[in-house]
Design goal:
The protein has 543 residues and is of the alpha+beta class. The protein folds into two domains: 174 residues, Periplasmic binding protein-like II (D-Maltodextrin-Binding Protein, domain 2, 3-Layer(aba) Sandwich); 218 residues, Dipeptide-binding Protein, domain 3 (Roll), CATH 3.10.105. The radius of gyration is 23 Å and the shape is globular. It starts with a helix and ends with a strand.
Length: 543
């Protein structure tokens, strides 16, 4: 992906800000990435690139979680696997985020397998594809692969990304042009396509891609040892040119202190989703640079809304919400870097509006702390006092900490919470089984179109088992929002919809996130794209 001049300027601005922020820094050097090289005279495990030594051409990246598969459809929402899949696969386009002091400074659409896109009408787009691209097995990339991939997603658990596509009218114009037709206008229709990674139609096999990904990305997998590591080497025939980084090792480390120690000792160069509790310590190390990323992202507790679940009772959901200490979650689970929720959706993106906060009284109430008396009343009405709620999670440190806080809080109103932790590979299967859980934490983000799709996705990608006439009505209102072409009218509909959605509360926003990525300051070109993707193909070590 070519970098624009503006992006280089913005990256330099961020680098200068980070120089001032890192107390251990002593100046010197420059970087085209989001961080700043540090030439402190203190001891460092960073590679010595200042005295004519050989420049490294490999990188070791720590990731949380192991999905047990490298299929991007099935590991799509497993934290830590985003950087992995972006090395092997590419999408038509993606959105990028760069931040300075917690404020978003640029948002763009970067084309990958598409060269350009024309909006022919409210429901039609013409996508011009990049020519001369091959998959890692040598097969050429064409429009047939795009159509095949869209149908594959439609028949999967990730249907939401293409559910508005009218496949009867969508047509391949030629090998490098495809006209995509939507059933109706949808505000988020183009943005959703950026989450779709393109597969090779000719060689696709859902069994083999578990351990042998075939994509158009810049790297080819060498070895996948579940629970341990993934290694990959650079493609000489990559359409964007052979990357400077020749070898990637993704080291799977799930425990916070172990991940931090591995970075300190130089065992890993990048903390992919680093433990927030150690940010200040990590920043003080002489070989450290950091990128702070603000996204339209929040962490939610999803409630089991299926008919036979105790959480289908609205009073039970309100008992959980009013008993939860959101300040403690921010301080402990988010390392003090998050912001308290003001609404069921994030409030820190440009198309959000302060008026959104006025749609929800409960978050105003919770800003001052939990209301245990009111929570107790709701719990008694719901009949859950003395009962045990099952709170499942995938062991991600942020989620694990939040679960422990919720457990403690609910204990104060006489509600027991059993925390059940699954490995990342089996977690998705477990939450798909509505008989095994009452609540679970999840991260919600859509870096392309922000608040509107995030709010609707709570329902349209329904994983909470909600059904019936009320659900149908609420979903209908969600589609009314994204289906309104006029921006002012869409905004008005959104305000009304948020009031309705919060009243039912199928999910509970426990905090708007801020991510901090820590990496060796001698790495250049480090940027974070949508869904936490690292594009290692753009990286290099300082010479």
């Amino acid at each position: 992906m070519k970098k624009t001049t503006m992006r280089k300027i913005l990256s330099l601005v961020l680098a200068l800000v980070l120089v001032a922020a890192l107390a251990a820094c002593s100046g010197g050097g420059s970087s085209s990435g989001g961080g700043t090289p540090n030439t402190s005279t203190g001891e460092s495990n960073a590679p010595d690139t200042s005295s004519g030594g050989a420049v490294r051409d490999d990188v070791v990246i720590q990731v949380y979680g192991d999905a047990g598969t490298l299929d991007p459809i099935r590991c799509h929402q497993i934290l830590g696997m985003h950087a992995v899949r972006a090395s092997f696969y590419e999408s038509l386009w993606c959105a990028g985020y760069w931040t300075e002091n917690g404020e978003q400074i640029e948002r763009v659409r970067d084309y990958q397998l598409a060269e350009s896109m024309e909006e022919l009408s409210e429901t039609e787009i013409l996508v011009h594809l990049r020519q001369g691209v091959t998959f890692s097995n040598g097969n050429p990339f064409t429009a047939d692969d795009v159509l095949f991939t869209m149908k594959l997603y439609y028949d999967s658990t990730q249907k939401q990304y293409v559910e508005n596509v009218d496949f009867d009218k969508t047509e391949i114009i030629d090998d490098y042009t495809i006209k995509i037709v939507f059933n109706s206008y949808n505000y988020e229709q183009i943005g959703r396509l950026n989450s779709m990674y393109i597969f090779d139609e000719e060689s696709y096999d859902e069994t083999s891609i578990v351990t042998n990904p075939v994509g158009t990305g810049a790297y080819v997998m060498d070895e996948y040892v579940s629970g341990s590591h993934i290694t990959a080497h650079a493609r000489e025939d990559y359409w964007g040119g052979e990357p400077t980084i020749k070898k990637i090792t993704f080291k799977i480390i799930n425990e916070e202190s172990q991940a931090t120690n591995a970075y300190e000792t130089g065992e890993v160069d990048v903390l992919s989703l680093n433990p927030t509790a150690d940010i200040d310590h990590l920043a003080s190390l002489p070989h450290t640079a950091q990128i702070r990323v603000v996204e339209p992202t929040c962490t939610m507790i999803r409630f089991n809304m299926s008919e036979n679940s105790v959480m289908s009772n609205k009073d039970a959901r309100y008992a959980v919400m009013y008993a939860t200490d959101l300040n403690a979650i921010n301080a402990i689970a988010f390392g003090g870097l998050g912001t308290l929720p003001q609404c069921i959706i994030p409030m820190k993106v440009e198309d959000s509006d302060p008026a959104f906060a006025d749609t929800t009284q409960i978050y105003k109430d919770l800003a001052d702390g939990p209301d245990y008396e009111l929570a107790q009343q709701y719990a008694e009405k719901a009949g859950i006092v003395g009962e045990t709620l099952r709170l499942i999670n995938d062991g991600t440190p942020k989620f694990a900490s939040a679960c422990e806080i919720i457990q403690t809080c609910l204990g104060k109103i006489g509600v027991n919470v059993e925390i059940i932790t699954y490995d990342a590979g089996s977690f998705k299967e477990k939450y798909a089984d509505l008989t095994t859980w009452d609540m679970f934490p999840s991260e919600h983000s859509n870096p392309t179109n922000a608040s509107y799709p995030l709010a609707t996705r709570i329902l349209t990608a329904n994983k909470v088992g909600w059904s019936g006439p009320v659900y149908d009505e609420v979903v209908g209102h969600a589609w009314d929002v994204v289906g309104e072409f006029d921006a002012e009218k869409r905004h008005e509909l959104m305000l009304d919809y948020l009031v309705e959605l919060q009243d039912y509360s199928p999910a509970f926003n426990i905090g708007d996130d801020q991510k901090v990525y820590t990496y060796n300051s001698n790495l250049q070109g480090v940027e974070i794209y949508c869904m936490h993707d690292f594009l290692v193909k753009d990286w290099s070590w300082a010479s």
